Amino acid sequence: MNFREARGYQSRWENTGLPTGFSNFQFIDQHYGSDPVLRRIFSQARKHDYQSVLVEEVREADCALLAEENQALAARSPDFQKAEVHRISFFRSSSDKAPQPEDFLGYAIFKWDHFGKESKPRARVFEAVMCPCRGEIQNNFIHFARRYEVNTTLGRFPVRGMLYAKQNNLTFVCAHAALRSALACVLPEGDISYARMNALAGIDHKSRCVGPVGDKTNGLGPTDLEKILDDLGVHYDKLIHEPRLVDPATGKPWTFPTEYQRELYGFIESGGPALLGFELDPKPGETGDPSRHAVPVFGHIFNEDAWLPNAQRAYFGGAEAYYPSENWLSNFVIHDDNFGPYFWLPRHFLKQDNFRLMYGLKSAPTTFRATTAEAIGFNLCYVIAQTYPKRNQFWYDRFSVFARSGWLVLRTLLLRRDAYLADLEQMKDREGASLENDFCQRLRNVLPVYFWMVEISAPELYATTRRKFGEILVAADKPGPPPFSPSLFLAARLPGLILVNAGTGSLDVGHSQLHGHTDLFTCAKQPEA
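Request: output the structure for the sequence above.
Response:
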C-alpha cells in the first residue's frame, strides 16, 4: 500500500486563508525545519488560493511502502532507527465545511529518517502531486499529467498532476527520483517503487550501494537505467554527448552533433516524457570527475510572441526549408528533486557543453525520431505542392505557396490511431464544414496503430490561433531515410484535398468539403495508455 492509500491519523486541519494570518513560512519553520522544497509546494498551494491544510500521520503498520522503504534503509545503514511520515493535503475549502472533490489541490509526503549517530533526523519531501498552477490558457503545456486518488480522513479525493519525487542519497539518488517521475507518466499504474527499480538494477544495499560509499558517491549509470526501462517494457530513444569518451564504433569522441533541445522538444511533443542528464560545472578547487544530475522533462511553455522564428532566419540562420514549431518554445517544464516541482528550464540555459545523456520515453517503438519524421513530412508537403500547385481554393492555394516558399510551420507527434480518428470525426473548419465519414472509415482500415503526424501550419495560424492547414501521416515502423521509401507516406489531409497511400503502388486522390483551417491536435485528445 502506498502513501496515497494508507490510513492517516489526523493531527491538524488548519485554515490557511489570508484573513486567518496563517503564514506558510512560519508553519514550515515550526513543523518542518524550514524545508525549501516544502516551501515551494506550499507556495503553489497559495497560488491556487488554498484555504486549509490537512496534516495526517502515516504509520508503518498501515503502509507497506513505508515498511519497504524502512527495511531498505536498515539494510543500507545499520544505525537506522525509525521513520516518521506526515501526509499533507491542500484544499480550496476551509475547515468549517466538508471539502468536495473539486476542492482538492494535491498532497505532499514529508518523511523524517532517524539514525542513531545523528542528533537530528534527515528530513525531506518524499513525494508530492500538485495541480499545476498554470494551464494551456497561460501557454503552459504539461502533456502527461495523471489522475491520482488520495485516501484522507476527510474522504477520498482526486488530483491530476505530475508525480514529484526526491532522493534520500542512501537507497535512491537523483536518477532514481527523475526516472520515477518519468515512468509515472507512462506506466499503467502511474507509479513505481524504488525497491522495484533497485531490484531491476541489481542494487541490494549490501554488495552494491548507491549514494556515498567511502570517498565516492555512486549513482545509476546508463546500463542501470536501460535495464530498468527494458525490463518494464518501456520504449525509448537514447542520445549521448560524452566529449571525453571515444565511440568504439568510430574511434571519434562520442558527441551529439546538433543542439539537443530540438530532440528534447520532439520527445515531449510526440508522446513521452524525457530524462535529461547533465554535468555540473566544477566548484572552485574541486578535483576529479564533475558531478552529474538528472531531471524529468514533461512539458513546455509556448511563446506566441517569440522573436526567434523570424529573427533566426532573417538575421542569423539563413534560408530554411520551414519553421520548426520548436522555435516558439521558451521553456521546458521539469521537476528538480533538489528544488521542487514545476520549474521552467529556459530553452537554451542548459548548454550543449553540459548535456550528457537523454532518454526519450515513447508509447510505441519507432525506427526514427520526430525530427526525421518532420523532415519527411516537409518533403512530402513540397512534392504535393509541386504536383498540385493551385486548386483555386483559398486555403489550399495558401498552403501551396507557403510550402514552395519555405514558410510552413511543422509540428510532429507520435499518435495512436484511435486518438487521431476521434479528432478527425469532430474536426470542423471556421465555416462549420467537417470531414466526410467515408474518409475516416477508410483511414481506420489502413492506418497502423501508431504513426507520426506532421501538422502543417503557417506562422500566424500556428502562433496566434493554434490552427493548421492539415497534416501528413508518416509510418513510424518502417526503415527511415536514406533512401526515402514511398511506403513511409500513409496519408495527407489538406484543405479540400485528401491523399491516401493505397498500398498497391497507387495513390488515392479525393476531395473534401473541409476547405478551411482547423484546430491543432492537443494532447488532451490523446487517451491515457
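Residues 525-529 have pLDDT under 50 and may be disordered.
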